[in-house]
Specification:
Length: about 500
């Protein structure tokens, strides 16, 4: 086992000790046996388990007290760790009761005493842990419910293997015993699977990644041990190694809790989460593997039909999830295209007037110059600054919008009207008849002359217009725009309406 070490921090001696304990101590019970050994060996076994349960409870209590914050995830973490603390206490109580019963019972006794407290205390602890997991808030990842349903369908298929029907003829008593078997064997297992799936698929786990991995290993080991028939725990060599597994899973729980306790308290929102999970597909694989095993071992029995039903449901849910994912992908692609169109609009259009901006105007000018002669009209509003100073910037903005509207009314649908910046506008006309250029300039000047009524305010409007005509073999976009700019400033300086 690799001893975990946080980056930039010295080795935790307690974690090292717990890890060495988990590596070295459990094999001793497998090598030397417990069930067939003397009372001291059995006592040592239960003392070790009791110590692990106490250590688990102490570390969990520390985590519960450190979980600060008042958001739903912080409250859920505190609730979870208090549930784990109580579960550790119940486990320790059940383990200690086993020791008491061994010393109070006959000289020849099994290692496991099956009375009420010894059985109910650990079961209540499992229920508390599962309750804490279920009450922890989940994230809002898309498809969460369907993914959890898929995992549960696969778990139910595997859980069928844990059911041991009671002996005897079917009847009321047999049915009651079967109900107890379902609740005590696969029932808690399935609820635990649901709780873990909800956390993993929800994307807001309260566990650190390394701690979660060790917890998962301990839970898988314990689930496998619970699936073994009770009579296998005894004097045989198999029973000795099963007891070794119990000690190892308990020690791993303590190691995982210590890993969780290192450093500052974990915050679920600080960890990036994937928008998808492979767990439903693992569940599908488990369902099919379970079906193959059951059919190969026992043929078509009641178990086989239950597993086949689970396979059908799991496969259907995965197919439905994929169909939903394809629909979502289509929606995302449409949203992407709409967003790209909006970004293009924002990149090439003036936000105030909706006209083309300088970038789009130059792009259109370059394209037009490569095909045919074009005419550029450059317009600058006269005395626009006094309008802002006298009437305010809001009125100035409305005047600019009105100017853009009037310029659009003077040109055709294939021409370009742009706001180059401030109070400067430009009009691009392709293939304009030379005899129409002066008239076009006069129309633009007339459209921007006189006064404008804006919200009850009369605003004066005047503009200087410069004109330049370009040909593909003589002009580039920058050269033509510069010529129009010079013509416009000549008009403005001379006080004339237009100059070519």
């Amino acid at each position: 086992m690799t001893l975990p070490r946080a980056a930039g921090s010295r080795t935790d001696p307690r974690l090292v000790g717990l890890s060495l304990f988990a590596v070295l101590v459990p094999p001793l019970f497998g090598l030397f046996g417990v069930g067939a050994g003397p009372l001291v060996a059995q006592t040592a076994y239960w003392v070790v388990l009791t110590g692990c349960s106490v250590g688990w409870a102490v570390l969990a209590r520390r985590l519960a007290r450190r979980a600060a914050g008042d958001d739903p995830f912080a409250r859920g973490a505190r609730r979870l760790w208090w549930c784990v603390t109580a579960a550790g206490v119940l486990y320790a109580l059940g383990d200690a009761w086993q020791i008491v019963q061994m010393f109070a019972g006959p000289s020849a006794h099994p290692i496991y005493v099956r009375d009420g407290l010894a059985m109910c205390a650990p079961l209540a602890g499992v229920v508390l842990v599962v309750a804490g997991l279920l009450l922890y808030p989940s994230g809002n990842r898309a498809g969460l419910r369907m993914d959890v349903a898929t995992v549960m369908a696969g778990a139910i298929s595997a859980g069928v293997l844990l059911i041991e029907p009671p002996a005897g003829r079917p009847g009321p008593e047999w049915a009651a015993l079967l109900a107890v078997a379902v609740l005590s064997q696969p029932g808690v297992f399935l609820v635990a699977i649901f709780a873990v799936a909800k956390l993993v698929l929800g994307g807001r786990s309260p566990f650190r990644p390394r701690a979660a991995g060790v917890y998962g290993a301990a839970a898988i080991l314990q689930a496998a041990l619970q699936a073994v028939p009770t009579e296998s725990y005894g004097a045989s060599r198999l029973g000795a190694w099963l007891n070794c597994g119990n000690v190892l899973s308990s020690a791993l729980m303590v190691v995982a809790t210590r890993l969780q306790d290192r450093g500052r308290p974990v915050r679920p929102a600080e960890r990036a989460t994937r928008p998808y999970s492979f767990l439903p597909y693992v569940s599908l694989a488990v369902s099919w593997a379970t079906g193959v095993i059951v059919l190969a071992v026992s043929g078509l029995t009641w178990r086989s039909w239950l597993v086949i039903a689970g396979i059908i449901v799991t496969t259907g849910l995965v197919a439905a999830r994929q169909a939903a994912a394809f629909r979502r992908i289509g929606e995302l692609l449409r949203e992407r295209d709409e967003l790209a169109a909006r970004l293009t609009e924002q990149a090439f259009h003036d936000a105030l007037t909706g006209l083309a901006n300088r970038a789009l105007f130059l792009r259109n000018l370059s394209g037009s110059l490569s095909r045919a002669p074009v005419t550029v009209f450059l317009i600058d509003l006269d005395d626009f600054k006094p309008v802002n100073d006298r009437f305010g910037h809001a009125t100035g903005d409305r005047l600019l919008v009105e100017v853009g509207r009037r310029l659009r009314g003077c040109v055709g649908s294939g021409d370009t009207v742009a706001r180059l910046g401030g109070d400067e506008f430009a009009v691009l006309v392709d293939g304009l008849d030379p005899r129409r250029r002066e008239a076009m300039a006069a129309e633009l000047r007339a459209a921007l002359s006189g006064t404008v009524e804006l919200d009850g305010v009369t605003v004066p409007l005047r503009a200087s217009v410069g004109m330049a005509t370009g040909r593909p073999d003589r002009h580039g976009p920058g050269t033509l725009l510069h010529e129009a700019d010079m013509a416009m400033y000549a008009v403005k300086n001379a006080g004339r309406a237009i100059r070519r």
